[in-house]
Amino acid sequence: MKRISVLTLAISAVFGLGTAQAGPIQVLLDEDFQDVTGLTTAGTVRTVQHILTNNPTQLPAGTAFTFTNAGTGDATASSFNVRRGDNPIDGTIGPPTFGNTSFDNFFGGATNHFLVIGDDTGNLGGSPNGGGGTSSSLMRLTFPFATLTLHHVTYLTVAFDYVFDANNTNNPDDFLVDLILADNSVVNLLTHTAPSASTRGSFNTTYNWSSFSAAPVALRFSLTEYGGNGSSAVGLDNIKVQAIPEPGALALLGMGLLAL
Fold first, then answer.
1. Spatial distance between the Cα atoms of 124 and 188, rounded to a whole number of angstroms
2. Side-chain-facing half-sphere of 225: CA atoms under 13 Å
3. How far apart are CA 249 and CA 184, in angstroms?
4. Is 79 helix (H, G, I), strand (E, B) or coil?
5. d(CA 202, CA 216)
6. How many Å apart are CA 138 and CA 222, to the nearest integer?
7. CA–CA dist 130, 68 (Å, integer)
8. How far is it between the farthest Cα atoms of the chain?
9. Which of 80, 119, 177, 256 yields a CA-CA distance of 20 to 30 A from 44?
10. CB neighbours (10 Å) of residue 229?
11. Sign of the dihedral defined by the CA atoms of residues 151, 157, 160, 165, in that order
12. Spatial contact of 82 and 114, defined as CB atoms under 8 Å apart
C-alpha cells in the first residue's frame, strides 16, 4: 500500500509540474470599447480619428483606419466611430429585422459601447452609401497585436461579436475579417459577400499556429459599399485574440514515469 501511495503522489506531482511548465495564455488583443469616454447622450458619436488624436490610450496601440473611394464613393474618416448601445443605429429591442434602419438592439443598453464601420451618424442608412453607379467605398480598420512573448505557441484563438446589416435587402456589399501576418500575407477568417438576416452573431474559433506562414500580427475588418444599393454598416464588440502555449504535461509525465 505504501508503494502505491508513493507512486500516486509522484504521478500527481508530475501532472502539477507539467501544468506549471505550460505557462500562461497570452492575450494579444482585448477590446470592448468601454474605455472610450465622451459618449454623453444616445446620439453621441466619437470618431476613431478623434479618439486617436485626443485619447489614443482608449484604443489598442497602433489602431489604424483607411478608406478608399472610387467614382462618387463617399466614405470619410467619420465612417469609423464608437457609440453607446442606445444609439439610433443599434435600435430598440425586438426580433432581428434585416433591411431596416438599425442593428435591432444587438449591442443593447446605454452602458455598453461598440464600434461602427460604414456609417457616420444617426441610424443605419446614413453616409457613406457607396455613391452611384459603379462607384464604391472600401473601409478598413486594423488592430495590431501585442508583442508576442511566448516562446512556443500551439494555438491562436479569435473571438468577436458582430452585426453586418443594411437598409436595403437587395444589397451586395462585402464584409471581411482577416489576420495579417508578419510576412504581410493575409489569412481570411470570415467573409460575407452580402448582408442578410444571418450575418450577425459571435465569431469564436481556434487556429493551429503551425498553419501560419508567419506570426499573426494584426486583425483587420473590411467593409466595401458598392454604388446604388443603399447603405450597410458593421458593428463590432468584445474583440479578443489569445496565444495558447504548447502543453508540456504529457512530456513531463513520460519523463517522470520513466524515472520511477
1. 26
2. 36
3. 34
4. helix
5. 21
6. 7
7. 11
8. 84
9. 177
10. 17
11. positive
12. yes
Integer angstrom CA distances of residue 167 from 87, 103, 164, 199, 215:
16, 10, 11, 14, 38
The predicted-structure confidence for 16-51, as pLDDT tens digits, reads as follows 444 334 459 999 999 999 999 999 999 999 999 999
Query: Strands of 216-226's sheet, edge to edge?
Result: 64-70, 136-144, 216-226, 174-181, 186-192
CA dihedral sign, ordered 77, 79, 83, 87 = positive
The cell for 184 is 504581410
Task: Find out whether 115 and 34 touch, Cβ atoms under 8 Å.
Answer: no
**SS3 assignment, position 45:** coil
pTM of the model: 0.87
Q: Could you give the CA distance from residue 86 to residue 113 in angstroms, rounded to a whole number?
A: 9
Per-residue pLDDT, averaged over 169-176, amounts to: 94
Chain length of the chain: 260
